[in-house]
Amino acid sequence: MDDLKFREEPCAEDVGRVARLLSRTRFFTAEEEEIGASLVTERLREGARWGYLFLFAESQDTFVGYTCYGPIPGTLDGYDLYWIAVDPDSQRGGFGRQLLAATERKVLELGGKRLYAETSSTAQYQPTRSFYERNGFFLEGRLADYYAPADDKMLYTKILVR
Q1: How many CA atoms lie within 13 A of 6 on its CB side?
Q2: Is the pTM of this model over 0.85?
Q3: Residue 39, burial from CB neighbour count under 10 angstroms (0-12, 13-18, 19+)
Q4: Number of helices (H), then strands (E), in the chain
Q5: pLDDT at 122
Q6: Is 142 exposed, middle or buried (0-12, 13-18, 19+ CB in 10 A)?
Q7: Is the pLDDT of residue 152 over 60?
Q8: End-to-end CA separation in angstroms for the chain
Q9: H or E element: which one contains 156?
């Protein structure tokens, strides 16, 4: 398994990279893909003070994935993991686990102690739920019919420790 290199600051090319990555995963709607790319655009415009933080992962100079995360306003030490995506050609190589671990380290450095992730209850997202559970998250809650009828919001939590 190749080691990843991580970069925190987005560049203009990351807008297209993120859009292509989200499309290639075939997990996200066109609206979600647009939102993911627009967060990079807004971060470039507003800077880190905007509250959305990123880790971009590269292996052998190839963009393989990213996370978008940030502090939850009004909480002492809670952080949301808004996005985590790995290119389909790079999945099953441990890159997602490495990317998540690096994100957790950054959250800890920033004083975070709880990381939250949400996903869908549909069968398509079973691999996502399994990924979270294999990486120390537990199911904190379920909101019935949140995204659509029979598509519940699954809220996962991980307690971060040094």
Answers
A1: 18
A2: yes
A3: buried
A4: 4, 7
A5: 95
A6: exposed
A7: yes
A8: 25
A9: strand 151-159
CA dihedral 43, 49, 52, 55 (to 10 degrees): 80
Task: Provide the pairing of β-strand 5-7 with 53-59.
Answer: antiparallel
Length of the chain: 162
Separation CA 21–CA 36 (nearest Å)? 10
Structural contact between residues 116 and 156, judged by C-beta atoms closer than 8 angstroms: yes
Contacts of 36 (CB under 8 A, 6+ apart): 18, 19, 22, 28, 68, 83, 85
What is the C-alpha separation between 121 and 88, in angstroms, rounded? 21
Q: Check whether 2 has a pLDDT greater than 70.
A: no
What is the CATH architecture assignment of 5-159? 3-Layer(aba) Sandwich (3.40)
Q: For the chain, what are the domain ranges?
A: 5-159
Reported as a single tens digit per residue, the pLDDT across 16-52 is: 999 999 999 988 889 999 999 999 999 999 988 888 9
